[in-house]
Model the fold of this input.
Amino acid sequence: MDLRRQPIVAIGDNGQIAITDGATFVGVADASGRVQRVGRAGSGPGEIQQTSALGWVGDTLWVIDSRLRRITWFHAGRLHHTVSFVGGRRSGQLLDLPMALTPLGAVAPSMGDGQAATLYKPRRWSLFLASPDGAQVRDSLFDMVDPAGALTVKRGNGTMVLRQPYSLRTLVGWSGNGTWLVRADRASQSEGPLGGTQPHISLRDARGRIVYDVPLPIAARTLPPAEVARLVDSAVATLNRNPRLPPTTTAEYRRALAVPPRVPAVSQLVVRNDGSVLLRPWPAPDGQADHLVIAADGRVRNTLRLPPGVHILAADTNRIIATRENDDGDVDIVVFDLTQRQR
Done:
């Protein structure tokens, strides 16, 4: 596996672990950590070109291929069946490729209509529950808000729209078994793109019904000028590595894009199969940020401190699966056992 990409991991109800490198590799790990590959690279039956998400429904593994625009199921390591996602419509909204599968259907985002679906993201978009092939829209789950502030870069006859840093107000996560969906609203739009009000987190079942909706015990953090400068320099360097975009400078970037005065309260969330959530606040400049463990009733149960360089991929009640980068820049996948003392 190429771990320079961000791997995706999902844990099933029976403890099975599925893992992908976000490209053509998909595998299932056993208790000893050995990984058996599922499928192979290609475009034929049971083959994969670009994995954007995976998870479990019972003991069947599903894989969403964003390049082939299809969903493939594997059972006991073998191809079960494949469905092409054709998209669906509701009130003029065009469904894009699903983000996840639940036992009741596919969680698919509505990305607008016509050209808006390809170049321009609407300020308000929605998640829908759809049939796995996208031919039928079953239900609306909830709206999401992406405030204004995109940077428009013109190149020849084309136009590309880039998101403002931290512009996405809402974070969404789902459990590896598809049973739970979590939404974290990181700020109030009335206060600007990030706001200073207390954010909320909500747990929903597979049909989108709210189990709880509670305020988070953390708030957006003000950005000091030195950190703003560092973020701008990083964004400019990222833009200039993209061969499809014209080169830009820090001054041009600042003129074209208002740098937000705050960072979001939440930088990551991981949903466990029991409905509890591991939530990571946006780290301080020194990189430190303890994870909050939020129980299935919305109460903060405890905190969790992990070593530097660790990024959580998935978790269940007894373990955490994460990537860890060492001082040489090498990346490993590691498993942490959760003991009572560590909790």
About this structure: The longest strand covers residues 137-145. Residues 241 and 247 are 9 Å apart (CA to CA). Confidence is low (pLDDT under 50) at residues 114-122, 189-196.
